[in-house]
Amino acid sequence: MRHAPRGRSTGAALLHDEPLERHPGDLRPARAAHLLTVDPTPVAGTSLFGRARASLAYVPGLDGLRAIAVAAVVLYHAQQNMPSSWMPGGFLGVEVFFVISGYLITTLLVAEHERTDRIDIKQFWARRARRLLPALFAVLIVTMGIVGIGGSSSDSLREHVRAFRGTWVSAWLYLTNWYQVIAGLEYSDRLGRPSLLRHLWSLAVEEQFYLVWPIVMWFVLRRFRHRLPVVGVVFAALAGAIALVVALVYRSENLGRINFLYLSTPTRLSGLLLGSALAIFWRPWRLATASVSRHGRWTDVAGTVGLGVLVWAFLRWHLVVDGVSAVHGYDLLFRGGFLIIGIATVMMIVAVTHPGSLLASRVLSARPLVWVGKRSYGLYLWHWPVFQLTRPRGDLSLLDPSSPDVRWGWLPAL
32 and 9 in contact (C-beta within 8 Å)? Predict the structure, then answer.
């Protein structure tokens, strides 16, 4: 029996999907990096990439893609308090994570159903909790301790403590995104002292998806298992419909509405649904050996185009822009932009999961990228609190390696 290679990982979620290893009759958590389902034991008469039943094989290129996404987010947040930014679209790394998560979670659920003819929903939720909660709880406990200790030193900090409490409580319930919408805490606001937990909104969106999606897939696989291509089309159509609704509801001058469109779960489901649709259609382990190299060239072209789109968006797009008289939304983003990023990510996933991809084997599987990608969950959890604690007024740069606060602050994530 072959097991996936082991490696150090802090957890799963956004990005952040649970690594597994193959055991007879079940799926158990492993310490390895993130895995894709492919059976190491081919069905008689088939090649390794023939019509084997689904199992698990490690895809380092997906960790490389995670590394690009988390680096974009970290660099974006590092410049949050600065007058100008050279990566104004780095926040779109979260959308990349959403697509990856939708793809991996749906692939795992379909694979489990193909292998066991059922989906163990309780076990799925238990695995998610084991992987995600300990690291999150550590962040919540540490940040509350720091805020509690320093909260009595000044009136401004006492006010910050009062604002922090709501975010802290909602984070325990994975409702941070809805709390920020209801409380009117604009994600694009660069003024004042942002909450140490503001970045957890994206984990809330994912966890709400994880809570519902196994039930959806249980129903789909029970009722429509022989019409999965139709299901995939429906998932993709729903993603497009969400993008259309966002475009129709969007008003560039209404920052409250922009905040809702950016943070709410229904309006951010398009990436997760695109990833899920891809999981229905894209089964790279079923490729015949003879077609691997031929298809690999085309997937490399698609992946390179997708990577180019992502880099362009990271460097050129904005969430909001400063107008002549007021701040307003970035029109392209809310009028199809999220869908463009989702499709570009789908193109990259197709490339990095293809067994004959040079983009995956020579670029995105590079050890530094894989190393960062395996730690994407921890990096995401800790980077924002560290940035805010070490430069609460924007007076400390991420790129100042001499700061002991920055070095010590990164240790828990690494």
Answer: yes
For every residue of 310-367, DSSP letters joined together read HHHHHHH--SEEE-SSSEEE-HHIIIIIHHHHHHHHHHHHHHHHSTT-HIIIIIIT-H
CA distance 22 to 225: 23
Burial tier of 13 (Cβ tally within 10 Å: 0-12, 13-18, 19+)? buried
- CA 4 vs. chain centroid, Å, equals 22
* pLDDT given at position 278: 97
Confidence of residue 357 (pLDDT cuts 50, 70, 90): confident
What pairing do the DSSP bridges indicate for beta strands 26-29 and 320-322?
A: unpaired
Euclidean distance between CA atoms 28 and 50, whole angstroms: 25
DSSP state of 14: T
CA Rg, the chain, in Å?
A: 21
Domain boundaries, the chain: 20-410
Tokens of 312: 């362009």
- CA pair distance 328, 293, nearest whole angstrom: 47
HSE toward the beta carbon, residue 311, CA cutoff 13 A? 8
- CA 353 to each of CA 13, 118, 279, 283, 350: distance values in angstroms, whole numbers, following the listed order: 19, 25, 11, 9, 6
Give the pLDDT confidence of 377-389 residue by residue, as tens digits.
999 999 998 888 7
Beta bridge partners of 28: 21
Residue from 46, 34, 22, 36 nearest 115 by CA:
22
Secondary-structure breakdown of the chain: helix, strand, coil percentages, each rounded to the nearest 5: 65, 5, 30
Residue 79: both structure tokens together: 């410049």
Q: How, if at all, do strands 57-58 and 35-36 pair?
A: antiparallel
Q: Please state, in angstroms and rounded to a whole number, the distance separating the CA atoms of residues 287 and 280.
A: 15
| DSSP code string of 104-123 | HHHHHHHHHHHHHSS--HHH
In angstroms, rounded to a whole number, what is the distance separating the alpha carbons of residues 171 and 189?
20
How far apart are the C-alpha atoms of 371 and 208, rounded to whole Å? 28
Reference 156, options 185, 198, 200, 191; nearest CA is 191
Residue type, 105: I
Task: Give the model's confidence band at 328: pLDDT under 50 very low, under 70 low, under 90 confident, else very high.
Answer: confident
CA-CA distance, 182 to 325, in Å (whole number)? 26
The answer to whether residues 151 and 392 touch, using CB atoms and an 8 Å cutoff, is no
CA–CA dist 39, 22 (Å, integer): 9
